[in-house]
Protein: Immunomodulating metalloprotease N-terminal domain-containing protein
Organism: Gallaecimonas pentaromativorans
Amino acid sequence: MKTPLLASLMALLLLSGCDTNSKVRAPVKAPAQTMKAEVPPKAPTAPATTLSDKLSPRQQALAMTLLDAPLHYAPGRYSQFMVPAGKDSFPLLLGKKTGRPMASAGVSEQGRRYLAFGTVPVTYEFEPFFPNLQELVGWLLSGEPGFVYKPGAVVATAFLGAQEKKVTGWLRRNMKDIALVRCDVLGLKECLGAADLVVVGAEGDLAEAQTLVNALKQKSALPVLYLHTPFWKESQFASLVLNSLELRQGEAGGNYWAQDAANWDNLGDMLQTRLAMNTAPAEKGE
């Protein structure tokens, strides 16, 4: 009787779906996914940064006040780009072909007004730009456009090398009621201490550049006009001085191959030009 009874029990277990194998089963491999994984959408491409995007409202208002269209600034091959490198500096003149800054300006937290050109724009080739240059130098001297600076304002020059006579000649002819003084390295601190504006080039060594930077720190609100005397070439002297002004030189070769120019019929077109520079847009709150 045991055998039929055992057979009956086994049959009942099989019918009820129970597994009579006491061994643990191997884990079952999950089936391959048949539905394609959802691909996340690509992030939208950021719009091109224009000069208007880069400038704060205060900087844009300043540029519109200081520049008069049409603009004719064509430095040719013998020039560098002057690139903003801090929150207080901004592009002032953009090349029409490349969108690179050919001149930049700024106002530091200490109140220093500064302006940098990638060449020395005082020779006859730049005559169409002279009215704008006069306005800009007037702004450096007084903080206002035009010729409202005090009579007898002292303009110091330093490290201009062979460009010294050209620069001082232009200043005498175009800026009325100023006094010119040339600073040497040994008396630089005292010379700048008596100045209302200093016009500097990059004709010096690194030790002299550091002396200039230190002297400028001593008079932190003294306006500075920087003229890039090495033309398209890069300069260690220039790097040190420009860095103290929140500026930097452009890439190697400057404008030699691009031969760009800031020739604009109106300022609105320049403001809407796409910038070609590795800096983030300025905060627009100021």
In short: Residues 11-40, 279-286 have pLDDT under 50 and may be disordered. The chain has one domain: 51-257+265-271. The longest strand covers residues 101-107. Residues 51-257+265-271 form one domain.
